[in-house]
Amino acid sequence: QREQAAYTEQHPGSRALFEEATNLFGRVPMTWMNMWSGGFPLYLDRATGNRVTDVDGHTYVDFALGDTGAMAGHSPAPMVAAVQRRAGELGGITTMLPTADAQWVGAELERRFGMPLWSFTLSATDANRWAIRLARLATGKPKVLVFAYCYHGSVDEAFALPGPEGKAQSRPGNVAPPVDLDLTTRVATWNDLASVEAALAHGDVAAILTEPALTNIGIVLPDDGFLAGLRELATTHGALLMIDETHTLSAGWGGATREWGLEPDIFVIGKSIGGGIPCGAYGISRDFAAAVTRHTDAGDADIVDVGGVGGTLAGNALSTAAMRATLGEVLTEEAFAHMTELATAFTAGVQATLDELDVPWSISQLGARAEYRFTRPAPRTGEESAAAADDDLDAYLHLAMCNRGILMTPFHNMALMCPETSRADVDLHTQTFREVVGALFA
Ligand code: PLP
């Protein structure tokens, strides 16, 4: 309550704007902004690197980084220059003509993630939806297999939990989609290959859609052999393996796919690779492309029948320019090395506090990102991780950190590093963590 009072007192400007906006559908960009722990979100004035300033003039060290959308930092200079040039000097943001930038980005994505063929979208949600559509087209099967407590954007198929008799049921709460998930989805348990096999045995799964580690219910890492098992089961049962690396790019320059040697049929990414400009992409293998290719009547030339997949603004020249600059000059191998080193230091700092205070929490790291969870040992499944959720603790930590100048996401106890995060920022965070957790366990 003390933290709540301090938050309210310190942010009259944000509060006034939020009251004016009313709530839910009242002018906040996303409904989750209503979940902000202090009752109203901070309103942004400006942001650069890993610093964010609100309309009341407070500046924060940002470890939320737009829920990974700003993994490249806020407004990185090469991205800004490229976008200014395209929007100004060159013009032509939306022409529905491809650009040389798109060509470059496709080649770079292949270099990092291995998939040869790429299409661009406006978001990771879009990329997932389009890729699911292609997977259905290629296999003729209706369902997507997802893991309990996964998140893949606003993709109806994925808001599912295991229900009775192997059927998928809607995940309760405000994410429940108004569709019959039994027609579209099968659900398995993370790190449980038997549950995957049981779901695939029905023979109606077009694709397994997964992150290489669950990242939206804390970080739940894969057991040794789990991802290889998924690959094998997908092949055996004629399903495609669709890897969504929107968040797990934090694992390194080539994401977890490169770090861990994964072999997806479809690869999805978005958010951070545009340096903050809306973007998304999916990559497919040649075999998969062949499965959705039809021969034209006119001759030998093949066309890819993409089943009506597209979008007027998809891969527009602004977003391809942004991706080229961000991938080429900001999210480099050196940047990932720096970010991972800092996340390792953060993890050690948090662990030291947990050990010292004998707090039964755990922390998991995936490259440039680490997240703590209110249970020990670290959860192995989405179900275990969900059971460890504690909204009151989340709210306290989020507000207490915010009141001390550290910005986190309301629904993740996550610290993400960007190229401009410094060791001093990490030390400030771990010291503040020691202070606010110490106050709880004193
Ligand atoms: N995939 C994963 C793994 C995500 O975590 C998210 C968003 O958090 C998305 C896809 C969707 O991204 P966007 O909201 O930018 O469409």
UniProtKB/TrEMBL annotation:
UniProt cross-references to InterPro entries, sorted A to Z: Aminotrans_3, PyrdxlP-dep_Trfase, PyrdxlP-dep_Trfase_major, PyrdxlP-dep_Trfase_small
Pfam families (UniProt xref): Aminotran_3
Entry keyword Transferase: yes
Cited SUPFAM superfamilies: PLP-dependent transferases
Descriptive protein name: Aminotransferase class III-fold pyridoxal phosphate-dependent enzyme
Organism taxonomic ancestry: Bacteria, Bacillati, Actinomycetota, Actinomycetes, Micrococcales
Family of the protein in this entry: Belongs to the class-III pyridoxal-phosphate-dependent aminotransferase family.
Keywords tagged on the record: Aminotransferase, Pyridoxal phosphate, Transferase
Named cofactor requirement(s): pyridoxal 5'-phosphate
Matching Gene3D superfamilies: Aspartate Aminotransferase, domain 1, Type I PLP-dependent aspartate aminotransferase-like (Major domain)
Signal peptide: none
NCBIfam families the UniProt entry points to: PRK07046.1
Gene Ontology molecular function: any one: pyridoxal phosphate binding
